[in-house]
UniProtKB/TrEMBL annotation:
Annotated membrane topology: Multi-pass membrane protein
Protein name in the entry: Nitrate/nitrite transporter
Organism domain of life: Bacteria
Gene3D superfamilies: MFS general substrate transporter like domains
Span of domain Major facilitator superfamily (MFS) profile: 8-389
Species of origin: Nonomuraea roseola
């Protein structure tokens, strides 16, 4: 690990921290946003859903652009766009301006994580990649902590406009930092012609996409929008207690990250079982919460938070699949496919919960819409795991499910 690579990585992680702060800021301000913009459950869900839709739709084009333009340019543009979005949100007083603001936040956010993952993949050796990716997600999640209790406190103390103008200023700080510190080398020929189709044809890329979708969707919907209202309105918790639980989710996730990164690197043939275990545990604890008569006890809600905390780190395994099955010249495109799939699933859960809330007015029924998404994700993980294994068997590498992490032949071959 060179000093230069470490400095670049730290800078990229700080930019990701700010992006997560912007991304999560709606979730803890959801009740205030509903009152300010005069929104019901579906309207509130539309704000978050559109932010995620823009994020998800932009993943593949952004992945191609980061392979062409480099991480620095994309990080600078992303930070500026998110700051503009928060300025618009600070002065928004109707649904139209609110939608425009969250679209800008989603667009800038879409440019950030892929750019940082590209820095990791090109700066660190393959064996260290799983842990470095987990550390990237872990440190970046401090942005989620900064968007829970501090934003709730700022909204109550200073009001809507000053809070979101301060958020925009934080984005400008990130812009200056990235512009001053990062340096991108001149793109090589392979970077100027990334293989989007080849990345998609790799079964490992789609295994990564469904890994991200199956593991991320529940915690993302909880953190981005529905967790705070669910805990306050559905479970009767005080706002401060709900904020502490949301912060706890992030803190526990930061503990899970390095552990899962180590396990993924140490036992690469068992990565898909980690994914399926996380998905199954999430469905199980939600079942216990939803079937509990009346309001769930605090200990059970804490158990829910702890299990949800494994979702984000678990979804990072999807990016390791993308790295394993693709050469450096199309890492951005493959990462975009993986990330886009996860956020499309998260957007779907957010939208379905909003519709169910408007139809039933009951959080228990609304949260049950997650089950079909988990089931589809688990089935697809099993399906593409089998395809990836068949590909490796055909290549006669004899390395099992994902053992070709350092094999150039595997990276260069498309799936059948």
């Amino acid at each position: 690990m060179t000093r230069r690579a470490l400095i670049f990585w730290v800078t990229g992680v700080l930019a990701y921290f700010v992006a997560v702060f912007h991304r999560q800021s709606l979730g803890v301000a959801s009740l205030e946003a509903a009152a300010r913009l005069d929104l019901g459950a579906s309207g509130l869900a539309t704000l978050a859903m559109l932010q995620l839709l823009v994020y998800a739709v932009m993943q593949i084009p952004v992945g191609v652009l980061v392979d062409r333009l480099g991480s620095k340019r994309m990080l600078v543009i992303g930070a500026l766009v998110m700051s503009c979005g928060q300025v618009v949100f600070a002065f928004a007083d109707d649904l139209l301006l609110g939608l425009a603001a969250r679209m800008l936040v989603g667009a800038g956010d879409a440019m950030t994580f892929i750019s940082v993952i590209r820095l990791v993949n090109l700066s660190f050796p393959p064996r260290r990649n799983p842990v470095m990716v987990q550390l990237t997600g872990l440190i970046g999640q401090f942005g989620a902590i900064a968007s829970t209790v501090p934003i709730i406190g700022s909204l109550h103390a200073y009001g809507w406009t000053p809070t979101f103008l301060a958020a925009a200023a934080l984005g400008l700080v990130a812009t200056v930092l990235v512009a001053a510190v990062l340096r991108d080398g001149r793109p090589s020929a392979v970077h100027r012609a990334p293989g989007l189709k080849a990345a998609w044809m790799q079964p490992g890329t789609r295994l990564g996409m469904w890994t991200h979708a199956a593991t991320q969707c529940s915690a993302a919907a909880f953190m981005l929008l529905w967790g705070y209202p669910y805990l306050v309105q559905g479970q009767g918790l005080a706002p401060a207690t709900a904020g502490v639980l949301l912060s706890t989710l992030t803190v526990v996730g930061m503990i899970c990250g390095p552990i899962l990164g180590y396990l993924a690197g140490r036992f690469p043939l068992r990565r898909s079982w980690l994914v399926l275990g996380i998905t199954g545990a999430t469905a199980l604890v939600w079942t216990a919460v939803l079937l509990w008569p009346g309001r769930a006890p605090l200990w059970l809600l804490v158990a829910l938070i702890v299990v949800l905390a494994s979702n984000g780190p678990g979804s990072m395994i999807g990016f390791d699949y993308a790295r394993t099955f693709n050469p450096a010249g199309r890492i951005g495109a493959a990462t975009g496919i993986v990330n886009g799939g996860g956020f499309l699933a998260s957007m779907s859960v957010i939208a379905l919960v909003g519709v169910a809330m408007d139809l039933t007015g009951d959080y228990h029924w609304a949260m049950a819409v997650q089950y079909p998404v988990w089931l589809l994700g688990a089935v697809q993980v099993l399906r593409y795991r089998a395809k990836a294994r068949r590909l490796l068997a055909q290549l006669d590498e004899g390395l099992g499910e994902v053992g070709g992490a350092q094999q150039g032949a595997l990276r260069a071959q498309p799936a059948d």
